[in-house]
Amino acid sequence: MPVKVNSQLPAVKQLEADNIFVMDEDRANQQDIRTLKILVVNLMPRKMVTESQILALLSNTPLQINVDFLQMTSHKSKNITQNHLDTFYKRFDEIETEFYDGMIVTGAPVENLAFEAVDYWDELKDLLDWSRSHVYSTLHICWGAQAGLYARYGIPKHKLSQKLWGVYQQSVENPKHVLFRGFDDEFFSPHSRSTENFSVELPQDFDILSVGDKTGLSIAAKKNLREVYSFGHLEYDRLTLDFEYQRDKANGESEQIPEHYYPHDDPSQTPKMNWSSAASLFFSNWLNYAVYQDTPYDLRKLAKYEYYNL
């Protein structure tokens, strides 16, 4: 899928080096088609890394996508310059009257805080309320999934006795579900979290799509696919967990080694990556079946005809 973004975004050079097709604005404007509009709410601290990861996964189908990144103006980022955010990210007041085929809400390293203690919580809640009439399908990732369930339904997160950290085997609960078309019976996914959600607390109009012996609930979705919740990190690249391990070790926070990640549990060896194909297929299925197949051609109908079903 040709991904259309600002050609000056630093992630573009990395994507092109990895042979991933990124279309510049001039070429995109010459194509007589309606592009899919995707809003990425990037809450991760290493924003440039997450930009590359998300854009790479949005590039695997033959549709054209226009991607906007959104910043939380109530939060001061420590790992990225404000100039980068002002140049490549939009504020909510700039997109408030826009409509999007899809939205991605990433994870964030704030899961040990109460939701209300997160400095941008009110802003995020307002965004999720707005999405009901301005976004067709939203994919929530890790803490973004927990935040979505709490903001929309009041469903709490629960503290784990030990951090869930590593790459874990997951089940495919319904192989015929559109989000898992093409999947094998099992797949692997990275997880990095200290809290969890329980399947029994989900609303009745949800499908439980994937679980794991160690991870518990992994992926769930509303039956109409307007909301998809993934509690792992399929978007992670090979070295993301390694970065987190080295960072925590250097800070004296933890020396816990991510499970099933390094060969022989030896951090000096190159980590294994066995989730890439599952990640690519999952994001492609979300774009195709939850977004492209059902979204109205005229996105203004999202508000006019109340496409969001409570």
TrEMBL record:
One of its GO terms (molecular function) is homoserine O-succinyltransferase activity. Belongs to the MetA family. One of its GO terms (biological process) is L-methionine biosynthetic process from homoserine via O-succinyl-L-homoserine and cystathionine. Transfers an acetyl group from acetyl-CoA to L-homoserine, forming acetyl-L-homoserine. It is found in: Cytoplasm. The record marks E111 as: Important for acyl-CoA specificity. The active site is at C142 (acyl-thioester intermediate), H233 (proton acceptor), E235. HAMAP family: MetA_acyltransf (MF_00295). The lineage of its organism: Bacteria, Bacillati, Bacillota, Bacilli, Lactobacillales. The record marks S192 as: Important for substrate specificity. It catalyses: L-homoserine + acetyl-CoA = O-acetyl-L-homoserine + CoA. Its main location: cytoplasm. Its EC number is 2.3.1.31. It holds the Pfam family HTS. It is an enzyme of class 2 (transferase). Substrate binds at K163, S192, R247. Keywords: Acyltransferase, Amino-acid biosynthesis, Cytoplasm, Methionine biosynthesis, Transferase. One of its GO terms (cellular component) is cytoplasm. Pathway: Amino-acid biosynthesis; L-methionine biosynthesis via de novo pathway; O-acetyl-L-homoserine from L-homoserine: step 1/1. This is Homoserine O-acetyltransferase.
